Amino acid sequence: MSLMVIVMSPDATADDVDAVVAAVESAGGEASVGRLSVAGGSGRTFIGVTGDLALIDALRIDEMRGVGRVRRVSTSYKLVSREHRTERSTVEVGGVTIGPGTFTLIAGPCAVESAAQTTEAAQIARSAGATMLRGGAFKPRTSPYAFQGLGEAGLKILADVRDRTGLPVVTEVLSVRDVELVASYADMLQIGTRSMQNFPLLQAVGAAGRPVLLKRGMMNTIEEWLMAAEYIARAGTLDIVLCERGIRTFEPATRNTLDIAAVPLAQHLSHLPVIVDPSHSGGRRDLVAPLSRAAVAAGADGVIIDVHPRPEQARCDGGQALTGPELLPLARQLDDLTTVLGRTTAAPRYRLAG
Amino acid sequence: MSLMVIVMSPDATADDVDAVVAAVESAGGEASVGRLSVAGGSGRTFIGVTGDLALIDALRIDEMRGVGRVRRVSTSYKLVSREHRTERSTVEVGGVTIGPGTFTLIAGPCAVESAAQTTEAAQIARSAGATMLRGGAFKPRTSPYAFQGLGEAGLKILADVRDRTGLPVVTEVLSVRDVELVASYADMLQIGTRSMQNFPLLQAVGAAGRPVLLKRGMMNTIEEWLMAAEYIARAGTLDIVLCERGIRTFEPATRNTLDIAAVPLAQHLSHLPVIVDPSHSGGRRDLVAPLSRAAVAAGADGVIIDVHPRPEQARCDGGQALTGPELLPLARQLDDLTTVLGRTTAAPRYRLAG
Amino acid sequence: MSLMVIVMSPDATADDVDAVVAAVESAGGEASVGRLSVAGGSGRTFIGVTGDLALIDALRIDEMRGVGRVRRVSTSYKLVSREHRTERSTVEVGGVTIGPGTFTLIAGPCAVESAAQTTEAAQIARSAGATMLRGGAFKPRTSPYAFQGLGEAGLKILADVRDRTGLPVVTEVLSVRDVELVASYADMLQIGTRSMQNFPLLQAVGAAGRPVLLKRGMMNTIEEWLMAAEYIARAGTLDIVLCERGIRTFEPATRNTLDIAAVPLAQHLSHLPVIVDPSHSGGRRDLVAPLSRAAVAAGADGVIIDVHPRPEQARCDGGQALTGPELLPLARQLDDLTTVLGRTTAAPRYRLAG
Amino acid sequence: MSLMVIVMSPDATADDVDAVVAAVESAGGEASVGRLSVAGGSGRTFIGVTGDLALIDALRIDEMRGVGRVRRVSTSYKLVSREHRTERSTVEVGGVTIGPGTFTLIAGPCAVESAAQTTEAAQIARSAGATMLRGGAFKPRTSPYAFQGLGEAGLKILADVRDRTGLPVVTEVLSVRDVELVASYADMLQIGTRSMQNFPLLQAVGAAGRPVLLKRGMMNTIEEWLMAAEYIARAGTLDIVLCERGIRTFEPATRNTLDIAAVPLAQHLSHLPVIVDPSHSGGRRDLVAPLSRAAVAAGADGVIIDVHPRPEQARCDGGQALTGPELLPLARQLDDLTTVLGRTTAAPRYRLAG
């Protein structure tokens, strides 16, 4: 469903209006004519249009005689919208819940490098009260000369660590080709920022029978993000968690600019849970704590944080990974903030932390 | 003082290097030559350069024979930097302190419309625990057909309300011509986002004998923001408070994108206090609370919030102004967060709030 | 005059609609109700609104019960619009015409450094067929430690060179304080990119009795640019030339991104002449030629190019200045392109070049 | 190969320097120490670093004691760089050459809708002198509710029209899964703007034995664009044509902002041909002509233009498609510009046009 408003120019004739209506209908749309009175003026006619987006796009309305301005008022997502489901949703991943009323801490290495490193990272995460483990086996790297991840060997390590720590695993899938493989090891499939508009991949993960973590494209609007979620939803699952991870701007001091307002906005437009990635947005270790605190305060349903036992030896983004001594006090602070804000933290955190 | 690093290309000859050094010195700079070994390669020569920014800019170094890449490593601000003053500064405005350890709430109408509206807004601010009053008498408006403010009449209203409520006043000055006038009424001079690089104005307010609230340009980097502060500092005062108010990005859902990371970053680079404007960044009433909470959590030294007794009648940005019933619970929440984060709120708040 | 379209939500009641209409009228606006049929649905009511921008801004319409979306359709500039004047305008500066049908080459140093340097630069400009001289006496510099220009001494040099070469002079004015002074020496007043929204300055230059060169703000939209021109026009002159000089984006390879599409767009929306600054947009000497050619091809009414007899000694932006041997072949190429595109170059060029 | 320059702070000790060198070497990198004299100061030590990007990334150098600033100077692409191949390359596609000295016009429908529509569009293209046919069978659409293309049926239509018109076909591939299929029909594989960082797809098309048209990501830097090309090159082919199609900025008047400077810059950094898409960058029919002319003038090796026999009925981006009567005069104008700029147009154009 699409909705356009065409404002005719002051000198538009009745024939001009009829021509626009005819064009709209020729494209299978519906048109209805209205009139705006203009302060001390002769007023303007406008035309409301509904129909198929692709066809409406093709109308040369803005070039038709007598047409002033054309404005679109559309909703291109439905299943993930608040109109479709008024209550905010909770997504369950291997016994862990993400959603309203709770706060979920997800932590782990940016990239899985070895069983030892992943195990140590998981222990750090668990002892800090994290209830889920993150870790990359397939890494999208801007340069072909950068470390690309361990692939299936990395998935095996993650599954093994999950079995020993009880932490459900979320990991990125880069290609339709790998969806089945990754789904056979992971508890949750992650769509990375560079894949947010990889539509065949969105459809494949939507049909894979696993909950999905959808990172916002660093170059995409909130509306495009929700439309990407709609692709996943239409393919078969509404167990989708949105993750704000920063957008690209002119500011060079940070890798990306965390769009903190996107958290309440996405929660306002969609019923899906929204978490924040403070590690990849800032790209700096010293920003992880303040950005994590800001995320809780803005209402995020959780955060996903890079940790590494020895960041100086990390093969990917070590510059932003926290160590145990850095994560623990932050996790405690996030608990305090969560409590002050009247939310509880996901119960499993304490059991696991014991 | 400027610092550049010139990396010569692999095939650069000794003559090429000498030519670059000669060019640097001809422009009054100093050069020193070093060498980088390259893994399994023949290595590269590079040249460090120091001197006057303007002159260094003019060197055609990037086009000289044998030159590979040119990188600048400069500090263009000194007085406002942490190198100049290691401890974070506290700025006092009419008995109110803004700086580390405290949290300052500034509130008031976007524009001064009348004595009654300003008084009511000040009462809302005060009863919520605000310790300073904001209000615009000279309004920079994108359209010449929009309300431009009451001018000196507005300043008189602000001063009168200040005298009756005890709340120091911060108000914007738009032109060098008006600095003396505004300074005669206001306790703190505000440089708005569109004036951040109005250099003559920065110099004039720096010499006006009043503390200055410097909003970040919506189109400016953090480094440019600090250089603008340096203009003010060199003109005579270090009583400068920085205000992050959102930057311009591709995201259309908010008026601007609040760069929450800019708060810890500016505090890391500069000793000046940093506050946040949650009203103008989001441009939406429903975002003021989450963005204010995020500001406290990120470490901001205060927030400046638009309030209006009757937003629906506001002549400027009413869509983002809070009413008393909206500001009070938020102020309480900000107090709670401040306490949890181990900071106290500016003492006067309680006296005034009583 | 403003125009808004309010789309009510599907479940809006007649009372909701009445309440919106009442709110609009309470703010002095006018409202008229229409209805959109929605494919296979129950349809939607919408309300057209007109009135004062500032007041309309203040309506809390988006939060009223039953309101779906709010869209504004406004023209905030009139005098500079094509609706006000259908034919494209020609601006005359000291006998030189800028506008449709011709192509004007403006050249000169970024900053006036000395009589000798300015004279040499003017000779380069003239021999290349330039019909106007550019040169900065008051320089807006991001860093307070950079060269700030010669001030009035620079203006005297420009006026003297103008008298000896016959080239009218365009130079930047930074402050309301200096408008009269600069106007007493220059033939055309330049508003720089950082001053595009310095509204008091726009009003002052508009009343100064000189034609104005209005550079686009590096982070301003085309609409904001035209509203800035409207400020100048309302203050007293329509002798305004718009100058596209690049906008700020995420791309680091160039200082700014030349928005080449802004040339035909601004000419489509406004009757004012539009020229391009290929020197400051790219910030690289090697881009001046291709960007200048692109400007002509896109329909620009002229270009303004930095030239310097000895760029390696320039005190400002030497890295982008062309020398005589670089400008001459480019100017010839621009002439060829102009001819192929069916336009003539400003007649004076040949007389002066003789 | 990577290259970093670490500038130590003024108070760095010899131990600090040794610690940094040790850290670099612990990560398998190589370090060499140099010293910069500072005007009237005690000077600064810096350290040059080379090694593996991923490992260097992980060094916590910026946080080590005594470290001032860290700067990277890297080349993350080699095969596509001018350093690898000094001469600009020419890519051949089904007998048509794209590269220096010539100008190639590619035209066709945004989306293949039917045999009739595609045939008519090809005839328009051919009669205008186009030497290649574009057309989408797999369409990446932001909304799941928009027309997604005809898939293989569309590929069959394109191949059939190619056989009847002699125009080689370029069409987009969206998924690794479809690469073989698309390569079996198309003469050239297109990577769309949303797929520029779909690394598995880049590798797959690089190995498919067809030349590749690589569109720039709408939010990617020129350097990232060249690294994406490097992925393709490493997978097996250097027959890559780069296509600038506009980047995402804050300007709402155009769909994207055509980065015209990217044409000469990409040609300067890489030996690959660079063409421009004036249709998708502006997203407006009225901008296609000025942007196409600007592309030729800036040195582009070709343009790729949307055409449609009946744009008002197009199912995708009809608002920007040209008709025959619009394309022909533009093509003639582009020929004239090409000639004036001393380049010839691809020979086949005339034979086909006959």
Automatic annotation (TrEMBL), chains A, B, C, D:
Family matches, as Pfam families: DAHP_snth_FXD (PF18152), DAHP_synth_1 (PF00793)
Statement: the UniProt record of this protein carries the keyword Nucleotide-binding: no
Residue stretches making up the DAHP synthetase I/KDSA domain: 95-339
InterPro entries documented for this protein: Aldolase_TIM, Class-I_DAHP_synthase, DAHP1/KDSA, DAHP_snth_FXD, DAHP_syn_2
Domain DAHP synthase ferredoxin-like: 4-74
Keywords on record: Transferase
Full protein name: 3-deoxy-7-phosphoheptulonate synthase
Organism from which the protein derives: Dactylosporangium maewongense
Taxon lineage: Bacteria, Bacillati, Actinomycetota, Actinomycetes, Micromonosporales
